[in-house]
Amino acid sequence: MTGYIIRRVLLNFLVIFILATFVFIAVRILPGDYTVEQIATRQFAGGGVEGESVEDLMEEAREALGLHGSIIEQYGRYIRDVARGDFGISLQTRQSTISETREALPYTLQLGTMTLLVALVIGIPFGCLSAWRKGSRLDAALRVTAMLGLAAPTFWTATIGTLIVLETGWIHLDVLGHPGIWEDPWGSIQLFLIPAIAGGVGIGAILMRLVRSEMIAVMGTDYVRTARAKGLAETAVAVHHGLRSALPTIITLLGLLVAVVVGGTIILEVMFNIPGMGQRMIRAIGGRDLPMIQTLALSIAVMVVFANLVVDIITAVVDPRISVSASDV
Question: Tens digit of pLDDT for each residue in 256-285?
Fold first, then answer.
């Protein structure tokens, strides 16, 4: 197992290097130029640019912002700095991009964790119930509900939830104070509850359908029929045999859904003014803040990659049928 983990970690570093390259290329495809904005600001502000050509001003701005040189030179500096742990300075705030990412990370983690918890609460119990009552009216109703959850866009669900809360006054949404759970636990839970439910409904619907299909497949196997023949209660058969056998597949899906959760939090953070990584990403893209975009995108990629590494390790522990030999990395 130790060798398996080491090989996976090394492989993940290779994946991160490839992702860093793609991020570098992607952010430079974006239209617009931060240096042009800076030059326009100086001209309107009367920054004393008389006698200087636009080309000179752009070169001066690029030099000051670290955007000078060819693409190959910029890429070389970028990879070198990332390898040394230097992710640069935000062009907008002139602060370290790592420090800004560190400030935003707890909000994104809290929203992502609450979203996954909602998905688990919805997906696993109702998936098991649907499989257990296969072919019944309850099963049909749950499947229709799951389809509705899949079809409803996250922002629509969040909007409807917000309108209901505002009309009923059940909870207080502090979108201006945006408290973290480490500062004001109850206020933070109230703020994050609606976006977590909005994001968790769709993911829970996916999880529910998978749990149902896996449970139905397992419940038709010989050893489950043998367990029934021995007189075990149907609930015990479903939980101890059906759900336990389907658990590795469910855990694997959760690893894949981490990327979906992170992507969904971007919209939800903007809607509810949550100062997480998604909101800062939108602001950085709007301002063409290349170092900030690169740091945030790479941080999100690292989170997803290593979340899947943890899932693979847990799956290997839970399911003894999985081999951890070198050929299975």
Answer: 777 777 777 788 888 888 888 888 888 888
Q: What sign results for the dihedral spanned by CA atoms 185, 187, 192, 197?
A: positive
In a domain, 126, yes or no: yes
Helix (H), strand (E) at residue 328: none
143 lies in the same domain as 257: yes
Sign of CA dihedral 180, 306, 269, 95: positive
pTM as predicted = 0.74
Q: What is the pLDDT of residues 206-253, one digit of tens each?
A: 888 888 888 788 777 777 777 777 777 767 777 776 677 777 777 877
Residue appearing with tokens 């995108």: 297
* Domain range enclosing 299: 103-323
91 in a domain, yes or no? Answer: no
Contacting residues for 184 by C-beta, under 8 A, at least 6 apart: 177
Does 59 lie in the same domain as 107? Answer: no
